[in-house]
């Protein structure tokens, strides 16, 4: 059966996350409805590179679609986007090797978190307005601690009981542009809520409630504090999924085009 790679962007503010749920609106559910509508086929498989939680957005989510159809990808792309809600758009649809797997072949996942330093009309669903003054320099310094292979047990839970909490963070950097603070984190994979807890911890550093030493201790011994600092979902964006042969960008795609 032919396999297609889909690159998808979506506004997750009105959805209960990526993963299909019977009695809830999800990104995957809307895509499945569109596929059934366009191809008039119910026998297909759609598999995402990773799950995003309710309220989280994506600039470059990746999925693979197995479907038996002779429809050219460029026509299918056009027709799918015509029936999808305006909050979901497939940016690219290409035929790939049947052995390609959106999740298991992914080398890195890149996230961007958007913090606003002021009240904004676009704040509630797309950023986190932090009212306290932020020491962005201190945040940038502590953010460097995240890089490398480390035990993130204080920052999230594994997919299954007894699973590893070791995560390799390839890049972690803080950018400040006018009234926005963008936190870019690239990792091999992520534990549940890990990125939002990493961000929330940095904000605590920025407002002066945590020190560099405090964050270091979160890696040396388990602490429940990062869970209390979990950043709100609306500021989080799955920026890109990287596969073999692709070079990690020094700056997130969103920052380049902001």
From TrEMBL:
The keyword Zinc-finger does not apply. It comes from the Bacteria. Keywords: Isomerase, tRNA processing. GO terms for biological process: tRNA pseudouridine synthesis. The keyword Protein transport does not apply. It holds the Pfam family PseudoU_synth_1. Substrate binds at residue 111. It is an enzyme of class 5 (isomerase). Its EC number is 5.4.99.12. Residues 8-105, 143-243 form the Pseudouridine synthase I TruA alpha/beta domain. One of its GO terms (molecular function) is RNA binding. Homodimer. Formation of pseudouridine at positions 38, 39 and 40 in the anticodon stem and loop of transfer RNAs. This is tRNA pseudouridine synthase A. It comes from Tenuifilum thalassicum. The gene is truA.
């Amino acid at each position: 059966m032919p396999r297609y790679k889909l690159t998808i962007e979506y506004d997750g503010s009105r959805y209960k996350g990526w993963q299909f749920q019977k009695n809830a609106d999800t990104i995957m559910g809307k895509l499945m409805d569109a596929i059934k509508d366009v191809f008039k086929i119910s026998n297909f498989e759609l598999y995402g590179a990773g799950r995003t939680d309710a309220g989280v957005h994506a600039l470059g989510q990746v999925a693979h679609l197995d479907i038996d159809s002779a429809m050219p990808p460029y026509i299918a792309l056009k027709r799918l986007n015509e029936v999808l809600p305006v909050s979901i758009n497939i940016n690219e649809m290409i035929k790939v090797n049947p052995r390609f797997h959106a999740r298991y072949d992914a080398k890195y996942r890149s996230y961007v978190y958007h913090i606003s330093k002021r009240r904004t009309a676009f704040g509630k669903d797309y950023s986190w307005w932090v009212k306290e003054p932020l020491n962005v320099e201190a945040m940038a310094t502590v953010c460097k601690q995240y890089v490398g292979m480390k035990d993130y047990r204080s920052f999230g839970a594994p997919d299954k009981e007894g699973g590893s909490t070791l995560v390799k963070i390839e890049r972690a950097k803080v950018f400040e542009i006018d009234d926005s603070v963008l936190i870019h984190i690239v990792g091999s994979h992520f534990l549940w809520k890990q990125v939002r807890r990493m961000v929330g911890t940095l904000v605590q550093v920025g407002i002066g409630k945590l020190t560099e030493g405090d964050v270091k201790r979160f890696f040396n011994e388990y602490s429940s504090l990062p869970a209390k600092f979990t950043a709100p979902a609306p500021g989080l964006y799955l920026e890109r999924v990287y596969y073999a042969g692709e070079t990690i960008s020094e700056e997130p795609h969103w920052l380049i085009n902001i």
